[in-house]
Amino acid sequence: MLQKFSMSFATLMAMVIGSAGPALAQGGAAGVVGQGTDGGGLAVPGVTVTASSPALQVREVTTVTDERGEYRLTPLPIGSYTVTYALTGFHTVKREDVRLGTGFVATVNVKMELGGLEETITVSGASPTVDVTSTATTTRITRETLELLP
User: Fold this and answer.
1) DSSP string of 47-116?
2) Predicted TM-score (pTM) of this structure
3) Which end of the chain has fewer CB atoms at under 10 Å, N or C?
């Protein structure tokens, strides 16, 4: 009886441990990474990078570029984001409609322009966000497409 219980317990544990990997992979953390540079292509440290989206449980997520001008906003839930870049002495830049899917990390680089006045530049659809770190073939179906199905 004890041997039968041990065998059942071992089988159950193997199933639980074996299914944990695929379950975590389905969660697929998304994110936004990139670099802030100036007009001459030099890294701009200290840029405040803010991502906002209805997909977030909090109002917005913020980070600051490091000494190489690089930033990382991960993990983020899937959805559409507005990413804002701000630093005193530079024009504020806003990238709208940055779409993140499961496991997709968008690389969004930004060129900060010197500015004397407080001004916001909004870029819509300037460049597509392409996952350059993955060679996987995927098909993404939006909620709107699914709702149109009979």
Assistant:
1) -EEEEE-TT-SSSEEEEE--TTSEEEEEEE-SEEEEEEEE-TTB-EEEEEEEEE-TT-EEE--EE--B-S
2) 0.64
3) C
